[in-house]
């Protein structure tokens, strides 16, 4: 990028979300989230164990398995989903550590598409937009449908390239 050219706002805020994700100590996925009102940054959060509790790097992941019946191309398929239940998701931490009044009419930039639980929480938080980079295919279709029903702008920055120093290998 030429030195006289500024980053667009989506890139700027997603870069911040990725930088925030570097605070995560989760071995499976580093996720960062940023709350933005207009062009004003109101809060940041990342995924991890509750404060004062050993995290996954210290105590190991607490993996819970879940199964969901989905219809894919007209055929029902049982999908196995694994989730670490030691970790509070970045979106959940963002909602815990920001005020409702600040969230009204705001946008959330998050490195990864929200899971079903986080999407539900975001849908009731007062935000009007969710912008994400990496897809989370396990919940994508139902999350997209719910966001559309709520009238929340839900968009993926597919061509976005994160800063190289923030990259972490994602495990599903």
Order of helices and strands: HEEHEEHHEHEHE
Figure out the total of helices: 6
Main structural class? alpha/beta
What is the topology, as strand order, of the major beta sheet? Answer: 2-1-5-6-7
- Count of β-strands: 7
What is the percent of helical residues? 25-40%
Mean pLDDT: 90
First-last Cα distance:
33 Å
The radius of gyration is 16 Å
Outline the biggest β-sheet.
5 strands, mixed
- Shape label: globular
In the predicted model, the low-confidence regions spanning at least 5 consecutive residues are: none
Beta-strand level of the residues, as a percent range?
A: 25-35%
Pfam family, one: dCMP_cyt_deam_1
EC number: 3.5.4.12
Domain CMP/dCMP-type deaminase: 8-154
Protein name: dCMP deaminase
What does this structure look like?
- The mean pLDDT is 90.
- It is built from six helices and seven strands, in the order αββαββααβαβαβ.
- The chain is globular and about 50 Å long.
- The protein is an alpha/beta fold and 172 residues long.
- Helix 5 (116-123) runs parallel beside helix 6 (140-150).
- Strands 2-1-5-6-7 form a five-stranded mixed beta sheet, with helices on both faces. A two-stranded antiparallel ribbon has the order 3-4.
